[in-house]
Amino acid sequence: MSTMLSKIEQDHQRFRQIVRGRIRRDLKKFLSRGELIGREGKRFVSIPVHDIDIPTFRYGDNSSGVGMGEGDEGDSVGQGGKPGQGGEQEGKHILEVDVSMEELADILAEELKLPRIKPRGEHRITTVRDKFTGIRPIGPASLRHFKRTYREALKRQVSLGTYDPDNPVIIPIKRDQRFRSWNEVKKPQSNAVIVYMMDVSGSMGDEQKELVRLEAFWIDTWLRRNYEGIESRYIVHDVRASEVDKKTFFSVREDGGTKISSALQCARSILEGHYDPSDWNIYLFHFSDGDNSSDSDNRECVKILDQHLLPVSNMFGYCQVASSYGSGSFINVLHEAFPNGADIGDGPRLVTSRVNGKDDIYESLRTFFKQGR
User: Fold this and answer.
1) Residue 280: which domain range?
2) What DSSP string describes 39-52?
3) pLDDT of res. 124
4) Based on C-alpha coordinates, what's the Rg of the chain?
5) Do both 176 and 296 map to the same domain?
């Protein structure tokens, strides 16, 4: 029985490796698939994978064959029809595979060659977890260890001479039962907060918001793989900024102008009120088409970043999406004000990327996280 289980496990692992290979091969395509987000569950996402067939029995046509029907010696067996004829052929199979968010993040990291993030700060927050440490003869039924119980019953029947290899029926009794034991373990927890900011003025249309939604999904997926405790906050702005929930963040649209400093000031207030940088890893991401109201507001943005946001954050990521109506100039303001990305010796804290279309998300993610921050 154990040999059979081992074989099944080997086959399952091989199947998972094949699936991972298919996902890696088509990763750029998956990064740009909006429907992937809609399939997301609590811990798993369902991914359609092409070209993988589940083994099944296939029955041929028994109307002819060896010893059946007319024919002379040497004639080929079967119908001899040409492939591709008829309109009732099977289409290509598409297999839906459930992949955990952790595994999806690992595939992303392998393909983009992303280093694991090293959390900073003191991380005084701890979590208490139950860790299974051994086996004992008493315990609740929910913790019964099947294999160890089976082994004890088998050992008892063999020693008593009641085991029949021709009829290997193993019946555990009460003293055969074994249960998992556990201890409470205190473990430091690396916490992170992600503050997403987005320009929702009239120049940011549905196409731009779809790019933001995809980029934010993969940012969130990667950071959650690196941190045990994640909180997300969402800020939208035109000339004024306000904090909103996730659903509103991706759906609201205004017709006003743009004042980017309002979003940065709102983010500053959230961080100062709730997130001590000695306990939290802080990630800030701003999405815009690069349009801003004035040069004076550009200077105000640089001041807020330099004095308040960059010193406390692991990263400030600015993602500029292409728009027919936006000026696209704010990314140049950041490059001029922070030519080395506010590098203080451990890599740039301010990182920028341009996303003109869905195909650019791949390189944008690599740009943001290649430093392991």
Assistant:
1) 191-369
2) T--SSEEEEEEES-
3) 45
4) 29
5) no
Which distant-in-sequence residues (6+ apart) come within 8 Å of 119 by Cβ?
190, 192, 226, 227, 281
Question: Encoding tokens for residue 303?
Answer: 């001041």
Contacts 24+ apart (CB under 8 A), 207-210: 208/289, 208/321, 208/322, 208/323, 209/250, 209/253, 210/34
pLDDT mean values, one per 10 residues, the chain (373 residues): 55 61 65 56 58 54 56 56 51 61 81 79 51 78 84 88 85 87 62 93 84 90 86 94 92 83 97 91 94 93 96 94 80 93 78 92 91 81
Q: If 0-12 CB within 10 Å is exposed, 13-18 middle and 19+ buried, where does residue 308 land?
A: middle
Spatial separation of the C-alpha atoms in residues 320 and 240, rounded to whole Å: 19
| Statement to judge: residues 208 and 168 lie in one domain | no
Q: Do 362 and 216 lie in a common domain?
A: yes
Question: CA 108 to CA 218: how far, in whole Å?
Answer: 9
d(CA 326, CA 342): 26
Report the distance separating Cα 214 and Cα 196, nearest Å: 13
What CA–CA distance (Å, rounded) separates 222 from 237? 26
Helices (H), 128-259: 146-160, 206-226, 246-249
Residues 17 and 46 occupy one common structural domain: yes
334/230 same-domain check: yes
In angstroms, the Cα distances linking 166 to 74, 149, 153, 163 are 49, 21, 17, 9
